[in-house]
C-alpha cells in the first residue's frame, strides 16, 4: 500500500523506516528537507511539498509537533490539498478538543480523519512495540488496524476521535508527575548523604516503585540528558495540553501547575531539547 508520512522528526523518521521495512511504498515530507533525505536511500519518495505528499496516497500519517503544525500543513492559506478520498491519521500528541476540531474540518473538506497517538519512544518504534491507541469509528478501525500493527502488536480502539487523544494526555501527565516526584526524593536522599543504593533497596520492592524510576536513574545520577528520546519542550507542551483539558473538566490542577513551573524553568536553562529528565537540574541545581 502507498502511504504518506509527514514529519520525519525523532519519531516520524523511524516510523517511516518501519513502514518501509514492512513492504509499504512510502512518500515522506518534512518541513526541513534534510531530515527526510536519509529515507530516500531506504526507498522512500520525498515529496516536494506537503500538498503533493497528501495527494500522493490514500492515507497520510501525521507525526508533527502539535495541532497548529497539522493545521498549517492541511489547511495552508494557498494551495490547499484536495482531501476527497484521503484519510488523515494523526499519531502525535495533541489535545482531545483539537483532534475533534481537526476531524470536523477534514470532514468538511470531504476527507476522513482518525487519531492513533502512541505510548513509547524511539526504541519502541524500532522494535514495533509502541502502544497504539485509536480514536475513530468501527469502520475506520477495520480499515486501518492491520497497518497500525506495523507500529505496535496490539492497537487498541479506545473510542471516538478525542478519546485516544485524552488517554494519551492522561499517560503523559503521569510521565511529568513521576519524573518530578522521583527527582525530588532522589535529590533529598543525595543532599542528606543517605546511600542511594539503600534508598533503592527499600523503594524497589515497595508499591511505590515505578519502572521509569530505574530507567531514568542513570541519567539523573550522571546528570546526562543528551540524545533525548522525548525532549523537555515536548513534555511541557503535553502538560499544558493536559492542564487545558483538565481545567475545562473542572479539575483541581495546582499540583500539575507546580510541575509546569519546573518544566518552564528547565527550558529557561536552555534544556528544552534535552531529555525531559533534565527537570532534575531545576529540582536539584548544581553548585547549590
Ligand atoms: N519523542 C517521543 O518519544 C514521542 C513519543 C510519543 C509521542 N510523541 C509526540 O509525537 C509528535 C512528534 O514528536 P517527535 O519527538 O518526533 O518531535 P520532533 O523530533 O520535534 O519532530 C517534530 C516534527 O514536526 C515538524 N513540525 C513542527 N512544526 C511544524 C510546522 N509548523 N510545519 C511543518 N512541520 C512542523 C518538524 O519539522 P522540522 O524538522 O522542519 O522542524 C518535525 O518533523 C509530538 O506530538 C510528540 O509529543 C513523541
* Percentage of residues in DSSP E strands: 5-15%
Number of helices: 12
Number of domains: 2
Helical content, roughly? 40-55%
**How are the strands of the largest sheet arranged?**
3-2-1-4-5-6
- What small molecules does the structure contain? NADP nicotinamide-adenine-dinucleotide phosphate
Mean pLDDT: 97
Run of helices and strands: EHEEHEHEHEEHEHEHHHHHH
* Oligomeric state as shown: single chain
Q: Any idea what the radius of gyration is?
A: 20 Å
- Mind describing the biggest β-sheet? 6 strands, parallel
Question: What is the CATH homologous superfamily assignment of the largest domain?
Answer: NAD(P)-binding Rossmann-like Domain
Q: How many beta strands in the DSSP annotation?
A: 9
Tell me the distance between the termini: 57 Å
Q: Can you characterise this structure?
A:
- This protein has 288 residues and is an alpha/beta fold.
- It folds into two domains: 2-160, 3-Layer(aba) Sandwich (Rossmann fold), CATH 3.40.50; 165-283, N-(1-d-carboxylethyl)-l-norvaline Dehydrogenase, domain 2, CATH 1.10.1040.
- It is built from twelve helices and nine strands.
- The strands form two sheets. It has a six-stranded parallel sheet with strand order 3-2-1-4-5-6, with helices on both faces. A three-stranded mixed sheet has the order 7-8-9, sandwiched between helices.
- Helix 4 links the parallel strand 5 and strand 6 (112-115).
- Helix 7 (163-192) crosses helix 9 and helix 7 crosses helix 10 (232-248).
- The chain starts with a strand and ends in a 5-residue tail after the last helix.
- The mean pLDDT is 97.
- NADP nicotinamide-adenine-dinucleotide phosphate binds at residues 7-12, 30-32, 35, 63-65, 69, 72-73, 92-93, 118, 121, 229-230, 234.
